[in-house]
Amino acid sequence: MILYGLNPHQMIPTAQALRQKGKAARAVISFVNQGTFSPVNRDANMMIDEQNRTRLPELIDLRRERMAVSPFTFYRGTALIMAHDLAQQAITGAPLVICGDAHINNFGLYASPERRLVFDLNDFDEAAPGPWEWDLKRLVTSIILCGEDLGMTDAHVKEAATKATFHYRYGLRKLLETSSMHRFYSSIGEDDILDSVSKKNRNAYKKVIKKAKNRNSQQVISKMTQNDAYGRRVFTENPPVLTHLDTDLAGAVEAAFEAYKQTVRPDIALLLSQHLLTDVARRVVGVGSVGTRCYLLVLTCENASHLVLQIKEASQSVVSRYNPIVGSPLGKLNPEQNNGLRVITCQQILQAYSDPFLGHFQANGRDFYVRQFRDMKGSFEMNELTSQGFLDYVEGCGLMLARAHAQSPNANYVAGYMGKSTAFEKAIVKWCYGYSRQIYRDYDNFVR
């Protein structure tokens, strides 16, 4: 049950031992416990206001406006509240590197370094070591809220929630039956997507794939920039979404960009050395991140080609804030020592392929990370999918969450805990339905 290394003092538990330990955990945290949502006494509006205090004040009203659109958009902006609530629920105690905000809109298409279009998790602002259940419950609750928002029948919503949970359980077990290298390199590509969806929905998926392939730096340059008096490509103002910075802040961003270049791979650093930074602007991002500091950079090469990078502020992970588990699958890395480093490290662990331009820096007491902007990034509009198309989509989300979790040492423990019966799916779906009703109550209070 123990695997010994070259040095007999170095040892790790076998996969079988971990699965047995996970199975034994059911006696402590049963599926009944896992499926019981215990309401938590807290003020959601006060927690949102607390979070807003660290954000740019001129964007707070925009954040509130976006969150107020529907219970689902409200949910997308409340990862902090859910982490707080999850910490009060049943937890098996097996830490993995988790996404922390694995709702269905945080999966999508993007380009691998080999320019292959892949489907995977694509948001890691909250990623950190934490309880695996948190990611799964975040995903399944989002499926329920999104399905209801789209007007789907109760039966169809429940089927989607159950299907995602099943494919997480099934996918994790199947991946763990393969070699460590197979699960490390496993991915879902463009061809896999089209092969797995029903013929009726294939055209809708092809449309999203085609659109994603055209979303790159060149498209950003053509749509979001113009030539200035010196012939440089500069961003076109579009307040409040895209605005230029004052001279002092723009200079600070330029200095920080030099610090970022010290953290990238040598081949990327050499490529960046062939570019000049020609413009900087502030960009307002999605629901959950509205009000955080985010900037876009235009880089111009000697042959007049362009690269657009994005700088995003990295705050403390909501997982780390409420995670009661001691011990990290990240080894010696302190995930809160540098939040920019935490985000890109977790991204590289959880994604099948990661952006080679990932890097980080610290400035003015804040942490930031850098990535390419819109590098063939594409998302599926849920209201454009048929009922079967929605089921196909959530199946992919469940599988890719399993693939992400399979990279951590405790994955076999999780597989052992979940077992082979459908009792686990029923428990998770039951909990998520209970929690989704809490979200409706929070949303009503928020709108009022």
UniProtKB/TrEMBL annotation:
Protein name, entry field: DUF2252 domain-containing protein
Pfam families in the record: DUF2252
InterPro entries according to UniProt: DUF2252
Lineage: superkingdom: Bacteria
Cited PANTHER family: DUF2252 DOMAIN-CONTAINING PROTEIN
